[in-house]
Design a protein that fits this description.
The chain is of the alpha+beta class. The protein has helices at residues 6-11, 56-76, 123-138, and strands spanning 19-22, 26-30, 40-44, 81-86, 99-104. A hairpin with a 3-residue loop joins strand 1 (19-22) and strand 2. The longest helix is centred in the middle third of the chain and has 21 residues, at 56-76. The chain starts with 5 loop residues before the first helix and ends with a helix.
């Protein structure tokens, strides 16, 4: 936990927030700038900025919480589904890993992703990209 992190302060009850769940490893609270009512942020209690920085053994507890919050959001908000997302650095308004759980209803106005699609110019470029990713993942 860092003293200057907004989300660490929320988890420590130093800043008021509508917390909907608290566990040993994670905290979930309503987003104060929701896409729709019921938009929840789920954070790990430990301060990490991105998904790539969280220790492997902390991922399962975090996503177990995300799964439970998603079920609750869909049920309580009478949603047809949900949008679950993480931003790493770009578009991340608070530099503390957080997972957005947003209730979705058909024809709610959100259109797919919030950025334009950029298809591969050809199958060779797609294959080269896939090969590079496979190679990098072998090293993990």
């Amino acid at each position: 936990m860092t003293s200057e992190c907004l989300f660490c302060a929320i988890a420590a009850h130093k800043i008021a927030s509508e917390i909907v769940y608290e566990g040993e490893n994670s905290v979930a609270f309503l987003d104060n700038r929701p896409l729709f009512p019921g938009h929840v942020l789920v954070i790990p209690r430990m301060h990490v900025e991105t998904l790539t920085e969280i220790p492997s053994d902390a991922i399962s507890p975090l996503f177990t919480c995300v799964q439970a919050v998603t079920r609750a959001v869909e049920q309580v908000m009478e949603a047809h589904g949900s949008f679950v997302a993480i931003n790493n650095r770009v578009s991340q308004s608070v530099p503390h890993l957080h997972v957005h759980v947003v209730p979705r209803k058909k024809k709610d106005g959100l259109k797919g992703f919030f950025w334009p699609r950029n298809p591969y110019p050809n199958t060779d470029e797609m294959r080269r990209t896939a090969d590079a990713l496979r190679s990098a993942l072998m090293e993990v």
